[in-house]
Amino acid sequence: IYWSRHNKVTTETWNLCRYEYRWADGVQIKKPIEVSAPKYVEFLMDWIEGQLDDESIFPQKLGTPFPPNFKEVVKTIFKRLFRVYAHIYHSSFQKIVSLKEEAHLNTCFKHFILFTTEFGLIDKKELAPLQELIESIIPY
Amino acid sequence: MESEMADAAPAPAVAAAATAEPLAAVAEEGEEGGEAAVGSTLTMERVAAAKKFIENHYRSQMKNIQERKERRFRLERQLESSQVPREQQINLLKDLERKETEYMRLKRHKICVDDFELLTIIGRGAFGEVRLCREKTSSNIYAMKKLKKSDMVVRGQVEHVRAERNLLAEVASHCIVKLYYSFQDSEYLYLIMEYLPGGDIMTLLMREDTLTEHVARFYIAETILAIESIHKHNYIHRDIKPDNLLLDKNGHMKLSDFGLCKPIDCSKLSTLNEDEPMGDDNLRESMDIDSSFSETTNGRRWRSQHEQLQHWQMNRRKLAFSTVGTPDYIAPEVLLKKGYGMECDWWSLGAIMYEMLVGYPPFYSDDPITTCRKIVHWRNHLKFPEDSKVSPEARDLICRLLCDVDHRIGSAGADQIKAHPWFRGVAWEKLYEMEAAFKPQVNDELDTQNFMKFEEMDNAPTRTGSGPSRKMMLNSKDLSFVGYTYKNFDAVKGLKHSDQQRNQSLIRPSIGSIFGPADMDPSREPNGRDKHMHTVSSGDPMIQ
């Protein structure tokens, strides 16, 4: 129930408010809070780093098994990373171009999309905000 | 889980507070829609760092894929030409696959100084130190070279550090010290290298004073192969000296930069120029510094070889513990800051050869500036002591190495030097296979008796948290060191066969021994026999 409400709220906020997102990681911040895009990215990167460093999710020792919910954890990471790409392309792309970084951004995004598609890590409906761009990478 | 996050929360929060403002500024500029200002200085620094990071990431990825294919191809090609039974061929290919998997895992491991147990210090310089260490997971013994980032940047050594790391990572040669890992944290760069317990030529000379021509010939020959090896990869060492010539436990020499690139104070060299006459004033100044200097009965200013050697030995010991380098082995064109080429390394070889046979460097002085002046005016200062017993052939070779860059032997390649009469009888292809001319005493793998003793000065480095260390990757200081991390394929040991028992009667080739010949200097392959057929062994190549 919590997660369902979380996703619903996030989706609504995303559509309604161009520069505001609600962040909740379910641990430190249980209720979604309003944050600016840079702070959202900051929270997200910190959270992902915590996931990667958590050996109960990403084991370091040879032979240690991965947890049963490993794929779900990875999918959540990729879903949230996709939102960062969506934000950059929708709201900051001209800035990226003026900084002459668009080739770097496009390379990373292409790699990201090919990887997620190969392993089915993001649901198709989640990819809707960048549909046209993705079709130029992977023609349907 | 929850408590762990609670503990971790404060640091990211502080980092978030510190970094949120610049990001907000960027966003605000974006919102305004104006493109008048491209970005603040901090923004531009971060953009440059991000670009470099991304470019390096994909370049490394492509290179790793290519190298993996090459290893597979090399193994398959060697198996075809070998007499190994098909079943064993399949096993060897599976071994390689397992090793590749372990290597990928190793590369993803966030290596840091905590992965090593720090042991004895064996070297120290202006920018850091070298010490023995043991990798905790494998128990392998390595030499850890640690360099302070801020010092590297301030003293303009970034390019040197990168060149050294690149050389060690690219030149896979038995003449060169092997690099296993390189990594960094917020304060330091680290190079994890092969530990060579035999010491170096400097400590050997400190014990022996001089070498016989037989011993000197052996080490000069091995040094020629090492220099040839790096020249073939378009590297110029530029700072070859006795303490960069390391000895393994069997006495064979490997080239390194263990000297930690002790800087020569360049500000004082600005007055040095080729046209400045070496007048009596300069000579007198030098004599004043050297208070023990006195004219000999025959009126010449040279002391006897023995006295000069004793004086150099005292001075050398002082130099070895200092953080200021000696210019004794540096070519004149390097000192004069003209363009220089690979020939400068052959000059260094000549200076080392002179020292091996005479007992002290050819342009020795108490004062580094005077040494530099002597080098620049080598025509007036290259002399052999009267009581020297150096053979005519050795003198001739030294004089051809310590001369004008235009006439220096070796300018047409190492073969030019190998052909010199002093090397008559040298079996160049077998130098590293035969018994070394000198056998160092090494009692165990942790033995450091062949190195000078250094005292501990700093506390052991403490690891910075993984969170902040990642964010700090985008500081301008770290921009200089993007792409520094490296892990050598040979750091992964070959796996034992599960069916070793069944093949007990056969000499079983291992991946290491099959790859062994390929690791040798390519220039040796045309001359040598098929080494694969003669180096097959069941021993673990990592155990020396």
Under the CATH scheme, which class of chain A? Mainly Alpha
Percent of residues of chain B in beta strands? Answer: 5-15%
Q: Identify the strand order in the major beta sheet of chain B.
A: 1-2-3-5-4-8
Instruction: Bin the helical content of chain B.
Output: 40-55%
**How would the global form of chain B be characterised?**
globular
Main sheet specs of chain B: 6 strands, antiparallel
Helix content of chain A: 55-70%
The largest pleated sheet of chain A is described as: 2 strands, antiparallel
What structural category arises from helix and sheet content of chain A? mainly alpha
**Low-confidence runs of at least 5 consecutive residues of chain A:** 1-19
Pfam family, one (chain A): Mob1_phocein
GO molecular function (chain A): protein kinase activator activity
Organism (chain A): Oryza sativa subsp. japonica (Rice)
GO biological process, one term (chain A): signal transduction
Provide an overview of this structure:
The complex is a heterodimer of chains A (140) and B (544). Chain A is mainly alpha-helical and 140 residues long. Chain A has one domain (2-137): Butyryl-CoA Dehydrogenase, subunit A, domain 3 (Up-down Bundle), CATH 1.20.140.30. Chain A has helices at 2-16, 37-53, 70-98, 102-119, 131-137, and strands at residues 20-23, 33-36. A two-stranded antiparallel sheet of chain A has the order 1-2. Chain B is α+β, with helices and mostly antiparallel strands and 544 residues long. Chain B has 2 domains: 7-197 and 453-535, 2-Layer Sandwich (Phosphorylase Kinase, domain 1), CATH 3.30.200.20; 201-265 and 304-430, Transferase(Phosphotransferase), domain 1. Chain B has a 6-stranded antiparallel sheet with strand order 1-2-3-5-4-8. The longest helix of chain B has 41 residues, at 41-81. The model of chain B is unreliable at 1-36, 258-271, 276-302, 460-473 and 494-544 (pLDDT under 50). The interface between A and B is medium-sized, with 29 and 35 residues. Chain B: Keywords: ATP-binding, Kinase, Nucleotide-binding, Phosphoprotein, Serine/threonine-protein kinase, Transferase. Chain B: It is an enzyme of class 2 (transferase). Chain B: ATP binds at residue 145. Chain B: It comes from Oryza sativa subsp. japonica.
